[in-house]
Amino acid sequence: MRLMKAPRGMNMRQLRILSMTTFLGAVASLGGLLNCKAAETPLHGRPELSQYKAVTLSNELLKVRMYLPDPESGYYRGTRFDWSGLVSRVDFNGHSFFCEFNEQQHDPLNHDDICGTAEEFGMTVPPLGYNDAARGEPFVKIGVGVLERGDDTSFQFWRPYKIQKPGPWTVKTSQDTIQFRQELQGVHGWSYTYTKTLRLAADAPVLTISRQLTNTGTKSIETDHYGHNFLRIDNSPSGPDYSLEFPFAPRFGEKSETREAVELKGNSLVFLKEIQEQSVWILLEGYSKREDNRIAIINHRTKGSMTITTDQPLARLAFYSSRGVLAPEPFVKLAIPPGETREWATSYRFAADAR
Description:
By secondary structure, the protein is mainly beta. The protein has one helix spanning 12-40; strands at residues 54-58, 63-67, 86-92, 95-97, 119-121, 138-141, 145-148, 162-166, 169-173, 177-185, 191-200, 206-215, 221-227, 242-245, 251-252, 262-265, 268-271, 280-285, 294-299, 305-310, 316-322, 325-336, 341-351.
C-alpha cells in the first residue's frame, strides 16, 4: 500500500498514527453496521412476524395467541385457508402447542405460509361456483372471498388465485372469547354469513372453535371443512417422541405415502424417524362411529399432549408431516340449502402429564 504524503506540519510517525486511528475507526463503524444488521435478523433464521395484528385470549389455565384478518396487512392473505382465528401458539402449564409451518421466511400471500389451526373449505370438492366459471370469471372460497378462475383445468389449492373481492370481517373480542364474522354477497347466487367463535373453557384447559355457516344465496352449498392443525408440542419436531392415539384401530387408506417414517400399532400411529426434508401424507380409515371423532397427539418425552375432538362424524381423516411439523386433519361434510344454517365445533384439550 502506498503511504499518503504527510500534510504540512505533520511528520511521518504522526501520519502513521492518524492512518491507524482512521482505519480502526472504520472497522468499528463497519462492526456497528454488522451488529445492527444482526439485530434485525430474527434468531435461528425465523421470520419477523411482530408487524402482523394479533390478539391473545387468556384465563388461569390457557394463553392462546392468534392472528387477525386484514386484507391489506394481515398475517395471511392467501387464497387457500380461512383468514380468521389462526392460532399460532397455546401455552399451558409450561408446555407450548402449535407452530408456524414455514419457519425460514414468511410470505402472507403464499398458500401455506400459515400456522396452527389453519382451516379450509373445499379441499375434496371444488369451491363454490368453480366448475361453472370460465377463465377470468369469479367463484367463491368461503373464509376468503370472491376469487378469479385461471386457466387450470381443475381447482388447485396451492394456486395463488386473484382475489376480486375479499370477504369483509368484523371481530368482537373479550378476555377469553373472540368472534369473527364474514358476510359475503357473492356472485351467481353464492352468498353466505360465516361466524367463527373461539372460546376458552372456564374450568378446564380446553379451547373450543365453534362455527356457524348460513346460506344466504340461492344455490345449495355443498362443501367440506377441515383443520390442518400445524403442530409441534414443546417445539419438538415430528418423530419418535410422538404418537397419535385413536379410539379405533386405524388402517392406511389408498395412496397413503408413509415414506417408511410411520407405522400403525393397534390404535396408534407411531414414528420411526424424524420427518424433516421428506413429506408424509396418509389417509386413515377404520372409523365407523360418532365416538371415533377424537385424535390424541402425545409427546412422550415432554409429557405434553393435545386431544382434538369434533362434534360431527368424521367424513375423512388425513395426516400430513413435513419440516418437523405434525398435521392431523379431521374433515366434516356440509350440505346447506338456501336459507338454512349449519353449526359444528372442534375442541382442543391440553394436558401436561401424558404417559
